[in-house]
User: Fold these one by one.
Assistant:
Number 1:
Amino acid sequence: MGYNSLRACVDDLEKHGHLIRIKEEVDPHLEMAAIHMRVFDAEGPALYFEHVKGSKFPAVSNLFGTLDRSKFMFRDTLDHVKKLVDVKMDPTMVLKKPFDYVGSSMVALGALPWKRRAGAPILYGRTQISELPQIVNWPMDGGAFVTMPQVYTEDVTQPGIMKANLGMYRIQLSGNDYIPNEEIGLHYQLHRGIGVHQTKANALGRPLKVSIFVGGPPSHPLSAVMPLPEGLSEMIFAGALGNRRFRYFYDDEGFCISSDADFVITGTVYPQENKPEGPFGDHIGYYSLTHPFPLMRVHKVYHRQNPIWSFTVVGRPPQEDTSFGALIHEITGNAIPQQINGLHAVHAVDAAGVHPLLFAIGSERYTPYQEVDRPQELLTIANQIFGTNQLSLAKYLFISAHADNPALDIHDVSGFFQHILERIDLTRDVHFQTNTTIDTLDYSGDGLNAGSKVTFAAVGAKKRTLLHELPAGLDLPRPFNKAKMVMPGVLAIEGAAFTSYAEEAKILADWCEAAKNLAWEGIPLLILADDAGFVAENLNNFVWVAFTRSNPAYDMYGVGSFTQFKHWGCTGPLIIDARNKPHHAPALIKDEAVERRVDRLGERGGSLHGII
């Protein structure tokens, strides 16, 4: 089967108990997002909001809220699509096992985009931006945003759908200096295909045509976030995954229109025409702040008959995009490791906001004639990881050798950290990249998109046994003398509020000098935090605080630290200063009054009774 619309998907999910209706009128300002997050936290169903205050259009969210529900939606095509991705990564697989790929090849042939205007459902009606659901997710958001858009652009030098880009970049519908119904904000980060298209359009002095699709079959938004192999079109992927060809046409102004979408917003982006966009509560768990981003001049807003507005909520993980990530991993499998020679596995740690923290497992094959006692090939692999697509946005990379423990689970956060910390030589195995790019949404650096990276590479036999409890009689020097055990080998230390780098560098230098004679054996990593108890409470808190609130080159110190021939190391524990800094973006905090309003839906007779 294949859904021909979002409505068909909603009906199917409801029929099989995967979706419930919210019958009460709900406020798009904070309340809908709060409902979504409460149900997601309960691993609940998809949500259909029948009555959205201020809009005539209903809305749906949490479609991808669990991996099981996502797999259910694509139950007839998932295995074929996995094989298509495998073939794109390694075409010789077809030669090795031709009969395994016959059905998948037919799916691919039937997935080519279909240009057809006659009878296109999207031509049913027109509306304007202010009539769409004006959903605001977090209290400090700068306005209403589209959070599940499919943003379509074409290469002005190679027009046509086969060279087009379909990505998911948030759209600000209201607020700031945008002229209502005439202007909206287009936000995209580094390493996105739309950036290449805008650069080419700017070079020619031409406006970039942008089409924003909302809704449509669920294969469409998933395709917009897929890290597809080079040359595999998002529209072909959408057709294969949805078992329905991507239907499209060009309107009278030359904009590409998705025939099956629920809404399509068309507009143009002119060279160097920006306006302030944001703030927006983002997926790392903090607000992305207000910055100039491309202004899109709205041309038309199309909608189909009985359309449904699709949205999601992002915030500190886990959220619905966590399940997106799990589904992407389910489909792509070993796609990324196959791109980098010697790489066995790579994992972006969701609880740390994805980009701040990567784990990797690689080979060590450079000197098979002798015992490997120092990272060699691992460092080559690490450099390739930092140069590969969106992996290049990472800040912290921990990489181990496959041969040291072939059974090591890269998704076991505690186990992986312990493996590294047992083996790492902190005088040798810490490698920085300074004054470089990091994720646009990460404000731990020294400017927008700017920061540093570090690789921790560990090979060989265990060098130390990690302590599981605080050493008896550990007397830490002031002012950082309150400690909690986070996990074996990792200690959280509480300190006074951060003041300035100049001041803190002196304080920490003095502290490290005073601490150098303590019995540190078995504790290689210290996390300096505003609240040691919060960091030590669970692993998710640890990775979120440690790796989202620190810039490696600025915030790493060490007991017995030194610099020799431009290389930094330390003889005692390494310290990550993960306290809040004045330049950091504020963390996301829910509105308690709104939370209390949501409680009523869980009461007897409410739409969410028995779920929240």
Number 2:
Amino acid sequence: MLRPALTSLAALALIAAPALPAQAQAAPEGTTTTANVTNLAHLDFLLDSAPLLAGVPGHTTYQQAQEPTAQAPWVYANREADGSFQRVGGGSYDPSTGHWGQGSFDADDIARAAVVYVRDWEQNRTAASREHAYQLLRELTYLQTSSGPNAGNVVLWQQPDGTLNPTPTPPDSPNPSDTGESFWLARTIWALGEAYPAFESADPAFGSFLKDRYDLALTALNRGSLAKYGQWETANGARVPAWLVSESTTASSEAVLGLSAAVKADPGDAASRAALQKEAAGIAAMATGSPGHWPFGGFLATTTSRSMWNGWGGEAPAALSEAGAILGRADYQQTAENAVRNFIPQVLTTGGPDNGWTPTPFDRSQIAYGADSLVESALAVAGNSHDPSLKKLAGIAAGWFFGANPTNSPLYNPSTGVCVDGVGGDGTVNRNCGAESTIHTELTMLALDAHPDVRSVATGATSVQARSGVSVVEAESGTLNGPASVTTPPSAWTGSANWSGSYVNANDGASVTIPLGKLAGAVQVHPVVDLAASPSGTTAWTATLGNGSTVALGTTDNGSLGAQGIAPTPDALLPLTLPVTIPADAVSVTAHVSGTAKIDALLLEPATSYLDLGGRSGLVLSAYAAGGFSISHD
């Protein structure tokens, strides 16, 4: 979700930062951009002194007595009318205490900012980045609970005066935030797993301290979800792993990034290798679908829903590819490659890094976290498969920052390091530039600078000339015959999915004829149906062509989903696949219902989707319903 702008700012000083210009300078046509695009100036601006209060039970850090402050990034930065930014915390502000409902600093952003600075230090030998990484890691380990029953877990929020806030408003899950494993534990493992090897030779004492705290975090992970390794749950009839961090593919993937770094640094680290094997097995089990079958080889976001893919945090292909390379698991690499080859091109041709396909592209807002996830995944798989076409795909995905996005304008300025907090589904740009957005923008920029050929593709993709991808046709737009009616749910959210709008509630003998509009070519039809747990009859589907003839497309079940298990609802909103592709002259699709059915929409997947990029790159990405992609010059 786009992070909201917060307005309780009276007690904070206005601190100027460079503004994002309306249009960044593009390289002349036919040239290759060679300048680095990483600029940590805005992330530096977000950093502030974080007091390390003494005497807080279970919370200590490296050389706390000698250095009683560390560093942390403010969670938000609101853009003012004059182009400056004001750093603000999360939740409502209480001027009498100087506290926020949540806090000014959070472990999620501290951990990921540390990853940015560690990578910049290692890649560019930047002395300032080494110091920032050192201070951020001291702060992160202060937030980590070091003793007692919750040892290894992490408090999420801290106030500007150093006070820890384990029970914020609104509360976190878990609550208090260090009473169980969490996204912030996973991100702590990511940061410490990448950081301790970097410091082991440069500062052995600090490196040893970080390794001890990494081991402590790993102990918490083993005590938590990994204690369920090998156990399986049921979610709406599907078998899902019980041992993912917080039931989340995202959280487990980010933990795997740290575990992989640790095992790469020390192949003999048996505890890290065992945890990596277990987490990777869980992530691999979340890959779903195949070419022509939703979600086309992508990874579901959570074990509790069969209907959800999130753009933000979609790093599962990167994590699984890295794990596969380290563990010698070619099957993991192939699963990751399937997602990158078959699903990411569909995402890019459909609209870019949307926040959520749930299961239709429902949340069309886009943020740097989602764009970075696509870039990092394509690059990781490219590196481990040695396929240059995947590097070019990564460059196309990274073009989002430079103008290949719904606004056709740059969302990042390399001369200032300023980004945006996202683009709404209506194309509105959130010009704030908080920690998460800045962090994931700079992770992409570091990756681009490490791969100049990919950077050249990205910086040359400055607009979208045209695109044609997966589209949605609402069932309620159709003509209803027999016992059928349109129902508008009180909320789009079902508990595990989103209705794309209203839906058609059809009973035995009803039919719904849904107009398709003008098709650009042949399409694969995916009816989106709310499947019942028990048998509820079937629906036969036909298409009417321009000459009036009809074509049988196939039959789908209305139910027989299976046991609810850990899913929040007994039914599930899912796209189904009809085996027959319809030609470009089809004018409508009709559902003939036997039993009872709830029909939400039709997902239309072109046999060939495309993204035509403007700017120096002049590239056209084509994605195929039959699988795979190609990249050509316009």
Number 3:
Amino acid sequence: MPNNYNPIKHINFSEDDHFKPETHGGGSSKPHKPVTNKFITKVLDSIKELTRVRNFEVSTTIAVIELESKAVAKSHRPTSIFNDKTCPFFGDVGYAKHLIQITPNGLLALEKKITQRNSKQVIKDISAIKSISPYKIDINANPDVKSLSIRLFRFNSAEKNRKLDNEFERFLNNFQCEWKKHASNVVRLYKVSGATKEILDSLPEFAGVQSVISSKCIQLKPMTKERFGVVRPTMNPPLQNHDYPIVAVVDSAISNCAPISDWVVDRKIYVPIAYKNDGHGTFVGGLVTNSFNLNDGDKRFPLCQSKIFSVEVLGNDIGDIHEIIQAMHEVASENPLIKVWNLSLGGDVPVSKTEISTMAIMLDEFQDKFKCLCVVAAGNYEDGLRKWPPEQDLNDGISSPGDSVRALTIGSVAHTNGFVKDLEPSHFSRRGPVSNYVQKPELVHFGGNVIMNGGQQVILGVNSIDANGNAHHDIGTSFSTPIISSIAANLFDKIGEKSSPSLIKALIIHNANLNNDIENEYRPYLGWGKPQGSLDILSVHDYESTMIFEGLAQKSFEIEKLPFPIPNCLRTPDDKVRAEFFITLVYHPELDPQKAFEYCQIDINVGFGKFEKGKFKSEIPREKEKHLFEKDLVKNGDKWSPVKVYKKRFPQGVNIKDWKLRVSVMDRDGYEAEGVLIPFSIALTIRDIDKEKPVYNEMSQLMDQYNWEVSDLAIENRIQI
């Protein structure tokens, strides 16, 4: 590594950087479409149909309102007719499909409101309706499974939720089954064992159930049989008197054999000995501790190493989501200093776009409670070999819990040529996006390839160790994931008290964006690419400057750095700025688990660009076109996404004298965000296109001149390098 690497700078926003912008309220009362007598009759008939099909033995039940595309944005939501006096909104099942609570009295009030339609606003809101229909339970479980995981809806009322829980428990007591309510505070989940066929047959009659899956739906990829033979791996033991960060590996067992046992600081065993299978966990553990050494010193693997806390909760390569989450809570409560949790596991089908998966919601809750970061495998597509680029649309979406928005989700790329080329997505690596078009995976690393020989697949896997301590190779997103986990753990360790899950995510994703140029059409598989190791992530060349801005955003206020200095060495003779810019924003929004498309309740935006005559125009990213509908802004932009990543290159220069960095906030309809503080981290890099100019030194001097509150992000970094 060259000696001219410099530390990243950490900048705090000052009180003077916060201001309250002017607001522009109001809006048109023009209907989204003609409200004819025929349309009114259709809407009223749909309401009457709900009265006939719903089971009102349950106090509150559910219907789905589909809105016109023009009416999805917060400013157009039809709350004059769907509110607490009628049938209020409380969730969604995908784009434009909103859930409402229905009761007999609520439906009567709604029918009256629509019949009278006594204001322009009511008429506009009626025009927003596309259809009204009963909610149908999402059942993804076979009748012969031994146990079910049943998820109930959560309303905006504690009293209604208690009533629903009590009614459902009375329903379950009619069957010869055992049930247990999960302790989660954000999702109501019951594990039910016994009488599963009878219960599945009866569930459609019980309104209030959102979805049903088999509770044992989390799997590990079976290990391949191919081995090198009895070959001892190149795996160094931990150095004496050296402090290593710890990664919690939630997996099958990790072998007690050398050389992996020296890296295991502790273990918690939840699997009976008869079901123990330590092959997968041991292979994953080897990559947490020694990915560089095990893979023949390939410099594309990171040098960083971590020790392991083994959470042994999957027996015979399968696990129960209730037991996995419960085990994680127990271990985290006893070991709160563990900041990174590796989950090389997942379901075998893509996640639904109509809800956030149950395990992902519980992982988000877990990460919030323990202020840690989960690193999750994107999952393996196993219905054949997928060519690159794909020749057809396949059912290869991310598997649960890879849709956890707090987590980092990791895909796989090939590390050598074979069926796909080097650095192309592995044929098995699953793709995003997930609900609300949130990008998953965010990152990739090496997970292997295959080559065809006489019609047979030959594994070209990444190297690690087997349960007997011998060298072994295999493929899967299970094995790209622990490489990122070790990088994340080392970043937490090197940054220390300043570190947070959002900052670590921002640093790794920003580094991937700096060093990869991923085309938009391939981002669903590759995210923002493959990052470097932890030391490279924390280091900056002389020809660039990387700054971390952190703060707490809130509604009705914006945060700015104005003026934002630009090094003179980047200005051309005609005073244009010739440079490239990279920005990564990661923030920590409030979440609503009852919603899929609107899971993230807060949207933070960052803009960097021109300030002239009191007006700001963002160049990175460019200002969004005003005519776009909400779906376009979300799908083609990144509205409501808690990770936003941009880059912009100005090879001919850009004519901007005064630059400004701006952070702003928007909240969802029905969510009261006033006074809520949202943590965010911004990584911003300014780079000389020719990689020659002294950008780092000039930027450091300018920050001192502007009296910014600046410090090195990782103080020990220069010494260690």
